[in-house]
Write a structure and sequence with these properties.
By secondary structure, the protein is an all-alpha fold. 49% of the residues lie in helices and 0% in strands.
């Protein structure tokens, strides 16, 4: 079985294990399927459904009064961050290709 083979090779090939897990855990339903109990294919209809749904959930008519954050004086400024093509390529070159992302 494929599960036994994955278990045997998990230390050497972790990407294949996580790919298998991802396939088993992925949901085949979209947000619109959940909202309307049916599949919506037409992009314009999807937009219309979202335009109706989100204003009903997120409203700017809130009675919550948020406090104004205090102003702080900066005593130690952060040095500028320098990112160059060379540094990015060097970091990419040091990645271990047989390890899973994380």
């Amino acid at each position: 079985m494929i599960e036994e083979k994955l278990a045997e090779e998990v230390m050497d090939k972790p990407k294949s294990f996580w790919c298998y897990v991802s396939q088993k855990c992925s949901s085949r339903h979209s947000v619109l399927d959940i909202l309307h109990s049916q599949s919506v294919v037409d992009p314009e209809l999807k937009v219309e459904i979202f335009n109706q749904y989100f204003p009903s959930v997120f409203s700017s008519n809130s009675s919550i009064v948020y406090p104004i954050p205090p102003l702080y004086e900066v005593s130690h400024k952060m040095e500028p961050i320098l990112i160059t093509d060379t540094l990015v390529l060097m970091e990419l070159g040091s990645l271990k290709l047989n390890k899973s992302a994380g």
